[in-house]
Amino acid sequence: MTYKLAAIPLIALLATTAIVPAQEMDKMWGTSVVKLRAENAKRGQLFADGNYAMFIHWGLYSQLANKVNGKTYYGIGEWIMNKNMANIPVAEYKSLAKTFNPVKFDAMKIAQVAKDAGMKYIIITSKHHDGFAMYHSKANAFNIVDATPFKRDPMKDLATACRKLGLGFGFYYSHNQDWTFPGGGNGPKTDEQGNPATFDDYFEKKCLPQIKEITSQYGPIELVWFDTPGRMPKKYVEELISVVRKNQPNALISGRAGHGLGDYRTLGDMEIPRQNVAGLWESVDTTNDSWAYAWYDEYWKTPKEILRRLISCVGRGGTYMLNIGPRGDGSVPERATRSLRHAGEWIRRYPQVVYAADASPWKHALPWGDVTVKDNKLFLSVFEWPTSGKLYLPGLRSKIISAQLLGDKQTTAITHQQSNGWTIFQLPPVAPEKLASVIEVSLDGHPNVDPTLGIDPSIKTDVLAELAQVKGAKLAQKHWMEKFGEWKCVHRVHHWTPGSKATWEVDVIIPGDYNVSLTYSGEGRLVWGVDIKGGEHIQNQQNSSHNYQTFPIGWLNFPKPGRYHVSVSCLKGNTEAASLKAIQFTPIP
User: Fold this and answer.
1) Is residue 1 part of a domain?
2) Residues 6 or more apart from 279 whose CB is under 8 A from it?
3) Residue 547's CATH number
4) Where is the domain boundary, 451, 480, 499?
5) N or C: which end of the chain has fewer CB within 10 A?
6) Domains held by the chain: number
7) How far does Cα 345 stand from its chain's mean position?
8) What is the pLDDT of residue 1?
9) Cα–Cα distance measured from residue 282 to residue 53, given in angstroms and rounded to the nearest whole number
10) What 3-state DSSP class applies to 168?
11) Average pLDDT for the chain
12) 3-state SS assignment for residue 125
């Protein structure tokens, strides 16, 4: 599981797997939902309406847990045999199957965790890049039944458990890469007899037969999640898709099948979009930093962070699939299940916020939280409770019929007023929920919103660079790895030139001074300038770092309520290397 990885050397990946521009992807996937429903009312219902799923990365690599011969390798565990990690020879890796005996695997326990978490289906690795099948494959003996002392097919157990609990079920399958089968992507170039092996050998002898197996032996499945197509020719992908369509007509096919042939778009690994994305899409994320189990990785997402990321995905119009990595013995780390269940308790109280909910008409998050929509109702998920007792909502043009603060035991009507195009809700001093409180706003019709960038007068407002109009510099997406396979993503303004600017139109309801900070990376000391068009200019010199950090610039004054154009410029220093991620406005008490 690694974003955009192809069947080519890692050093060449970024050059050969170009990221498709967002506007082109929107054209490609923009009508997916309509087409999907027209073709088959059942296909994709859990995906489009459930909005939340469990991903599971579990395999032979899980028993290594990122430690080989006493040495720990930091990064995603499912790549442990790759030359960029432990570089384990094929024969040595395959011999691990002799000791793989996950006796603590309990399909019902795992399915129950997904159910308790509020997830609607489970997708699990049937075969990852290492070529080891986690089910009983008659096409190839390198599988959990024939090659290990476990001698059971855990996928049958999990499929049965999902059906009992009313969950959907589906498979991940690495269709291009296979590091242990001759001819597979990034795999051996010769067979055991030393004869040259081709991709056709792998495809005909292993890949195609295994796709037939996983789509015919486990009952109805929700989805087939292909991964890393690389340079796999289109004809092979078409043949695999025809098998899925024949055997599982109601199953979705992931966009990573390749060549635009999937049913929906999958964003980059661990990527949570900051703006609404058109069409049918998903974000895939994991509960810590590794997909497969890594012994050292105890950096778990909190229940609040899980909800933030889930609601952000739903609010941007998509589906969130969150991964767990069971240990080699089949058990699931307790801290992961604890966070999932805690977040799931919140979802059970407020299911309308997540399930069958539509994207936010603001098209981005707001300083205090996010918005999802169902019919003529807005659901405001408030993660940062305003101590002022006032919650500010910019740009709502629709008439409000009622507003109420939802609770576990009772709902409370709340009052509101309009001022300068903003809606101001009067709130109690203490939030009713520890994770996120929910305000239900009923409107007189479908939401009519001006998706303005409002400067909140009581909470710090973080305005992203990707929402700016840029002149003389470049606005582009950047992906990088913190550890091997741990992907980060940011839209940033870079390659600053003399006179270049990043400009936002912002709406101010309470005039006065606001402290301005910038989040950026760079080299050495940089001088930044911030301007209000027709108004005040401030500038300051601050140091920089290779990673994104936030530095104060100074106070900026908005003299009256209304719309302003605020611009940022990089004035001195290594301006080409300077990379701006966001600008922050903090009200001065």
Assistant:
1) no
2) 25, 26, 28, 29, 30, 31, 32, 33, 264, 265
3) 2.60.120.260
4) 451
5) C
6) 3
7) 21
8) 59
9) 10
10) strand
11) 93
12) strand
Give residue for tokens 């929107």: 26
Over residues 262-312, the pLDDT tens digits come to 999 999 999 999 999 999 999 999 999 999 999 999 999 999 999 999 999
Amino acid at 15: A
Structural domain ending residue among the three candidates 353, 383, 400: 353
Q: Which of the four pLDDT bands, split at 50, 70 and 90, describes residue 26? A: very low
DSSP character string of 375-428: TTEEEEEESS--TTSEEEEE-B-SPEEEEEE--SS--EE--EEEETTEEEEE--
**Residue 486 structural domain:** 461-587
Residue 409's pLDDT is what? 80
pLDDT digits (tens, 9 = 90+) for 161-207: 999 999 999 999 999 999 999 999 999 999 989 999 999 999 999 99
Tokens describing residue 495: 């390659």
Q: What is the dihedral of CA 359, 364, 367, 371, to 10 degrees?
A: -10
Give yes or no for a contact between 393 and 380, defined as CB atoms under 8 angstroms apart: yes
Would you call 332 helix, strand, or coil by DSSP? coil
d(CA 66, CA 79): 9
Q: What pLDDT shows up at residue 23?
A: 39
Say whether pLDDT at 558 is over 90: yes
Residues 24, 58 share a domain: yes
In this structure, the strands spanning 52-56 and 121-127 are: parallel
- Which pair of structure tokens corresponds to residue 164? 């009992």
Residue 19 has pLDDT above 60, yes or no: no
Domain assignment of residue 364, yes or no: no
Question: Does residue 180 share a domain with residue 59?
Answer: yes
pLDDT at 30: 45
Residue 32 has pLDDT above 80, yes or no: no
Whether the predicted pLDDT of 16 surpasses 60:
no
**Statement to judge: residues 320 and 420 lie in one domain:** no
Strands (E), 121-215: 121-127, 168-173
Of residues 223, 222, 220, 226, the one with CA closest to residue 239: 226
Question: Same domain, yes or no, for 438 and 469?
Answer: no
Residue type, 203: F
Cβ pair 156, 109 in contact under 8 A: no
Check whether residue 387 and residue 305 sit in a common domain: no
